[in-house]
Amino acid sequence: MSDQARIDLDGQGFEAEVFEGTEGERAVDISNLRANTGLVTYDPGFGNTGAVKSDITFINGEEAILRHRGYSIEELSEHSTFIETSYLLIYGELPTAEQLEGFRNNITRHTLLREDMKPFFDAFPPDAHPMAILSAATSALSTFYQDHYDPNDPHDVEVSTYRLMAKLPTVAAFAYKRGIGQPYIYPRNDLDYVENFLHMLFAVPAEPYDLDPDVVTALRTLLILHADHEQNCSASTVRLVASSQSNMFAAISAGIGALWGPLHGGANQRVVEMLEEMRDSEESTERFIERAKDKDDPFRLSGFGHRVYKNYDPRAAIIKNKANQVIHKLTGDDPLFEIAAKLEETVLSDDYFIERRLYPNVDFYSGLVYRAMGIPVKMFPVLFALGRLPGWIAQFREMNIDPDKRIGRPRQIYTGPPLRSYVPVDQRA
Ligand code: CMC
After folding, report:
1. pLDDT for 75-124, tens place per residue?
2. Running DSSP on this structure, what letter comes out for residue 152?
3. Average pLDDT, integer, range 123-129
4. Sign of CA dihedral 340, 346, 349, 351
């Protein structure tokens, strides 16, 4: 027999079933609360609301655990490839060699963009933020690939999966080339996923581009570390848009918009800008920390804090371990890394941050690694989006076949004026 929770109100009781997830998390099912009591719940930012049952990703924020389909992020980032981890997220199991080959081939065959999509990139101002181009172009893919985008047709969902996995790196690289005024570089099917992206990003027609194996390895690890993070702001956005039966391109375009913000995937850009400001400022690092603690100052330390992790973000721990070595190998010593390490040390011994359990998150060191690879700061959130794509696709697909799915439609508690009579304009004070 399952446990019951009870709400008592005005002499009446409401019993709600309590159920448990695989890892022992307990939840109260309040899906009939309003029908039985007239009450709704109030939970700004959804900090206590489980909107889905999901098999994809498990996080224990207190113990710094992150697992995809049961596999730890430490193992995946050490042994897997980005394409294999994507397969795992999307289909639920690690692929056999044959399945992996098939998945890779399907993606490789779809990397080109339709030629008549190219002028679309030229239309953006050269200083456009690449996340805006990424989101707009992803939405625009739905106008070029209308043949297979019905979310209720499993074959169409499969084709959209390949198309998005294959074309998003091309779109991202074109967005970058637009910004720096270089010719767009076409995908190369003889390269793997990460190599091909770096080729499209950094090659120019005038000379051969040599891939640096250290850059390839570092980017592969970073993409795996970003691949999914259960019901975060952008994944929830993807699910919310998809819940109205919008196509996958529309849902993921919206997810990119959600990711762009500095509290989410835009934080990696903000961290490096903040560290540069600290380097160039007359003020001490301690002064920045004081400002972050001051409630009257909107400044926060980017790259610290997390809704779920009340411990060191396991992704940040992996990046930090590798960052110094990768940065040193690629560019020599980086004064920004030293500022970051000092900032972390000071923050972790400061009562304000200790009491609130604020630790470095995934964005704190990732930007420094991207920077050492020669990637400009505005592209950092784009790299986060490329990494997060398989997670968004997995969340979209899981929701699509969920027997409990309903259109996403939160309630509200209205606090505006009560009924009043319309006053003609000439009689208004
Ligand atoms: N600097 C200073 N104070 C902070 C910070 C910070 N970075 N983060 C949280 N706090 C304080 C906050 O002011 C609050 O204090 P009080 O209880 O006195 O009001 C307390 O810590 C709890 O914070 P919160 O805003 O209620 O926490 P949240 O779960 O709503 O927000 C967050 C989480 C990530 C948006 C927030 O920690 C933050 O703004 N961090 C900086 C931006 C950042 O690095 N974002 C990347 C997140 S990780 C990658 C991803 O998932 O996108």
Report:
1. 999 999 999 999 999 999 999 999 999 999 999 999 999 999 999 999 99
2. T
3. 94
4. negative
Q: Nearest 5°: CA angle at 171, between 166 and 174?
A: 135
Looking at residue 150, its pLDDT comes to 96
Q: Which of 268, 302, 304 to mutate to test the pocket of ligand 1 (most atoms within 8 A of CB)?
A: 304
Q: How far apart are CA 398 and CA 393, in angstroms?
A: 8
From CA 86, how far away is CA 227, in angstroms rounded?
Answer: 7
Residue among 366, 130, 128 nearest 268 (CA): 366
294 C-alpha to ligand 1 centroid (Å): 13
Radius of gyration of the chain (CA): 23
**What integer pLDDT is reported at residue 176 of this predicted model?**
96
Asked whether the predicted pLDDT for residue 1 surpasses 80, the reply is no
83-87, Cβ contacts within 8 angstroms, sequence gap of 24 or more: 83/107, 83/192, 83/193, 85/224, 85/227, 85/390, 86/165, 86/227, 86/389, 86/390, 86/393
The string of pLDDT tens digits covering residues 163-199 is: 999 999 999 999 999 999 999 999 999 999 999 999 9
H and E: helices and strands count for the chain: 18, 6
CA distance 176 to 375: 10
pLDDT at 217 over 90: yes
What is the rounded end-to-end Cα distance, in angstroms, of the chain?
64
| CA–centroid distance for 294 within its chain | 28
Question: Which residues lie closer than 8 Å to 171 by C-beta, 6 or more apart?
Answer: 113, 133, 134, 137, 138, 141
To test the pocket of ligand 1, the residue of 57, 222, 230, 263 to mutate (highest count of ligand atoms within 8 Å of its CB) is 263
- Average the pLDDT over 244-248 and give the result: 97
| Ligand 1 nearest atom to the CA of residue 234, by list position | 52
Higher-pLDDT residue of 1, 215: 215
Can you spell out the DSSP letters for 256-325?
A: HHHHHSTTTTTHHHHHHHHHHHHHH-SS-HHHHHHHHH-TTS----TTB--SS-SS--HHHHHHHHHHHH
Residues with CB under 6 A from ligand 1: 45, 229, 232, 263-265, 267, 292, 300-307, 356, 358, 361-363
Q: Which helix (H) or strand (E) holds 65?
A: strand 65-68
Quick check: is 306 catalytic? yes
Report d(CA 358, CA 19) in Å as an integer: 30
Looking at residue 324, its pLDDT comes to 83
